Amino acid sequence: MKLAAAGDNCMDVYENLGKAFPGGNPVNVAVYFVRLGGEASYTGVVGDDKYGKIMLDALNRKQVDTSHVRVLPGSTAITHVELVDGERVFGDYEEGVLSQFKLTDEDIDFLCGHDMVVTGLWGMIEHDLDRIRAKGTPIAFDFANKLSDPVIDVAIGSVDYAFFASDDGDTPELRDFMKRMHARGPKVVTVTLGEKGSIAYDGGEFTTYGIVPCDVVDTMGAGDSFIAGFLFGILKHKPLRECMHMCAANSSVTLQYNGAW
Fold this sequence. Notes:
- By secondary structure, the chain is α/β, with parallel strands linked by helices.
- The protein is 31% helix and 28% strand.
- The chain is globular and about 50 Å long.
- It starts with a strand and ends in a 7-residue tail after the last helix.
């Protein structure tokens, strides 16, 4: 099973810890997918600074294919983070060379040589999804907690597996939203609910799942671990409920250490 992750990356710089960790939604999903036993690549850009080297070295150590990561003159993206009682608190974001990221035709051919492509809200490839989908490659997309972001209108019709996040729990309003999103194209719409678990809708029924209890050290990467577990299960043709168990179990591992990975 081969997963292609494409889009944003960044260094998560923890000011109060004096440490920096590689991260970014597609990057994290690729690493967690390999951790589960699959193969993954990451397509994106980094700067020619120290953080770009750290990012590439870390991905290579995690056995993620970086053959389609371009190094551009400038700064690697940075997200400033504080850790407060185990919860990440985001500060300033410096985009750096990511502002120059654009998929080439060769990148798209490379991505479509995988079993699935995953990207997200800040991946900057939403306008290329129809080209990927036209080649027959399934697409997963993380819309995060932006339930009304304009990117939804651009991307949702080309997405097979749509992921959202909400802190409001399993409400009738959320289920109505999931039904509306499903009607626009995805096979499955899934929403993570933090400590309340998750809920998925496949057009026929809703499936809910709880969490795998653990001692939480840092929530960074928990949602991306969830996505990796879900896609790993989907590509192994597991039932939806089993996929959701794999999500929760994979997230619980990530919650127990500092940084995404």
